[in-house]
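Structure ticket #2291
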Amino acid sequence: MDGDRDRARKVLDAAMAEGRTALSEAEGKEILRAYGVNVPPEGLARSAQQAAEIAKRIGFPVVLKVASPDIAHKTDVGGVVVGIDSEEMARREYELMMARVRSRLPDARVDGATVEGMFSGREVIVGMVRDDQFGPVMTFGLGGIFVEIMKDVSHAIAPLSERRVDEMIRSIRAYPILAGARGRKRADIPALKDVLFRVAQIAADFPQITEFEINPVMVGDEGQGCGAVDALVTIRRDKR
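Resolution: structure written out below.
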């Protein structure tokens, strides 16, 4: 599976040159874009007015997420607001979010807020953790804020085969949600499989990546594709 390795390598090299062991969300998404994974349009706002302007340019509704290298789980600190449908709401929610985050994590570095387009669909998690013995181990399961509560996940050692990816998807308890239970539309499972293959390829191409988590991946109805709306990436500086 092809990807723009040079584009992704520039992101990793820049972070490694700075001595960092984690990428920002924007950097993680840039790697996903380089490998053909669908990512929503976005922009970084450093003020309430900028948030409103970016939201208008992207088109409503949008999501507002705190941008901070010190905050991995944004929802836990009130750092995510969905369904923003006007410039006035974007300005108001930006100010409220900044106040919430500062009150809960006063020492965190905050660069502003990311304004991004909204994807609708079913929330799943796609991830990779590099094991010292087995190499890249892929994870798939029910995503969003419920992943740590429900623990409805499956695992497979990369590289992945078509059969193994099918097994990963079908083995979770929430699979009927994807398959179209009780008359609901079937999810775009081919697009979801494509995301799994592409993340596995990223892991194969860059051994310095020790963890890559997309939570959530929004899976649309059949034919509508998937969208990666978050990206958490950790790296090891001694691998090239």
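Closing remark: Strands lie at 42-45, 62-67, 80-84, 112-117, 122-131, 135-142, 153-157, 209-219, 226-228, 232-235.
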